[in-house]
Design a protein that fits this description.
Blueprint lengths: L12 E5 L6 E2 L5 E2 L2 E8 L9 E5 L25 E2 L4 E2 L4 E5 L31 H14 L7 E5 L1 H12 L6 E5 L7 H15 L16 H15 L2 H7 L18 H13 L5 H13 L8 H5 L5 E7 L7 H13 L4 E6 L7 H4 L1 H16 L2 E2 L2 E2 L2
Parallel strand pairs: 5-8, 5-9, 6-7, 9-10, 10-11, 11-12
Antiparallel strand pairs: 1-4, 2-3, 4-8, 13-14
Helix pairs in contact: 1-2, 3-4, 3-7, 4-6
Length: 383
């Protein structure tokens, strides 16, 4: 169901693979049997199967990227970018978004039932990597009968997945759109994630990851989200949104949420624990920290031979994933001989800009995808 105002009502679908006695082999030599990926699709796959676009989500995202679930008034996390006439135009493209392996929103992760023990995995869940996430996505793309993606796009951790598609499956994508991301985490980025992990593990309810069926480590996870949310915003956006405004109080309390920004962070933390699993937070942030698209080599060497157009987007106020990391990706693409474009937008939103600056992103992405979709080959347009 679509209309010019958006996608309309959508349903999450599920793809299960690695049925026993088979298994899904992970990058670190671990194995998973009976793996499920939650995913959603928007638009229609054309007869040539050449118009498929994969959207990869960030740390706290999921498969519900656009439209509305029945009975839920909250749209998908990138609804303003996906739909008729939008950046990822569903009148033209078949858009796919799946929840990553290791997640907690329908895909197999630490909170899932281990088919061998019939109990939630907890910390018995094997370590996962960005490469594992992409390998699972590739199996989903195979299942959908798509030989080559028109594009893979995503921001933050989603951008890492896009880079991994370029590296692991260069023959399976025609273009890539990494947004507000990095080929590898800096020490500062790792440090912020480690603070979040320590907050979770310091919660008495964490119980070494085996808290399912008991009181979950909500306080630790809420603090982790509060720390993360600070990094998503810029100093300017926080000043404009909150300033030093007090929460309806004339006097300071000893340790209460006196300032609006304190109340906002507490709200963000408490709402996050209602939809996310603490162990998934641990596993996914560790996968992000361990990722290195270059495999310890020069990134340009890894990119050599890739036949894909690349559009890299960054935002000036993003201090969590600063623009220099995007420029490193662009430089590596150029040195490797790839056709790469770069745009750095002067948003005040910080890292959140990739979710909020939809007008600028829409303009850039629409034109980029149109050029890729209608690329001229031997005097004729390739569709």
């Amino acid at each position: 169901m679509t209309d010019k105002k958006g996608i309309g009502t959508v349903e999450t679908q599920y793809y299960t693979f690695a049925h026993p006695p088979g298994s899904f082999i992970l990058e670190n030599s671990g194995r998973l049997g009976l793996v499920t990926l939650a995913y959603e699709t928007y638009g229609r796959l054309n007869n040539e199967r050449s118009n498929a676009v994969l959207i990869a989500h960030a740390l706290s995202g999921d498969a519900h990227a656009a439209g509305f679930h029945k009975g839920d008034e909250n749209p998908g996390w990138w609804d303003n970018m996906i739909g008729p006439g939008r950046a990822f135009d569903t009148d033209k493209y078949f858009v796919i978004c799946s929840n990553v392996i290791g997640g907690c929103r329908g895909s197999t992760g630490p909170s899932s039932i281990d088919p061998e023990t019939r109990r939630p995995y907890g910390l018995d869940f094997p370590s996962i990597t960005i490469t594992d996430m992409v390998n699972a996505q590739r199996l989903l793309i195979d299942h959908l009968g798509i030989e080559k993606l028109l594009s893979a796009a995503g921001g933050s951790m989603g951008g890492m997945q896009v880079l991994e598609w370029m590296v692991s499956y260069p023959g399976r994508i025609r273009s890539a759109i990494p947004i507000s991301t990095a080929a590898r985490h800096s020490p500062q980025q790792i440090a912020f994630n480690e603070v979040g992990r320590q907050a979770i593990m310091a919660d008495a309810n964490w119980k070494n990851g085996y808290y399912y069926g008991k009181e979950p480590p909500d306080r630790g996870l809420a603090v982790a989200r509060m720390v993360g949310h600070i990094t998503f915003m810029s100093d300017r956006s926080m000043a404009e949104k909150f300033g030093r405004q007090l929460k309806n109080r004339k006097e300071f309390s000893m340790f209460g949420a006196d300032f609006e920004v304190e109340g906002y962070l507490q709200y963000r933390g408490s709402s996050f624990v209602k939809r996310f699993d603490a162990n998934s937070y641990l596993y996914i942030t560790k996968a992000m920290d361990n990722y290195d698209a270059s495999r310890g080599r020069e990134l340009s060497e890894v990119f050599k031979g890739i036949d894909a157009r690349v559009l890299v987007l960054a935002f000036k106020s993003d201090w969590l994933y600063p623009a220099y990391q995007s420029l490193e990706i662009v430089k590596a693409c150029k040195l490797a001989g790839l056709e790469a474009s770069y745009c750095e937008t002067g948003s005040a939103y910080g890292h959140d800009a990739f979710l909020l600056e939809t007008e600028e992103e829409t303009h850039l992405i629409k034109h980029f995808l149109e050029k890729v979709f209608l690329r001229r080959v031997n005097g004729e347009y390739e569709i």
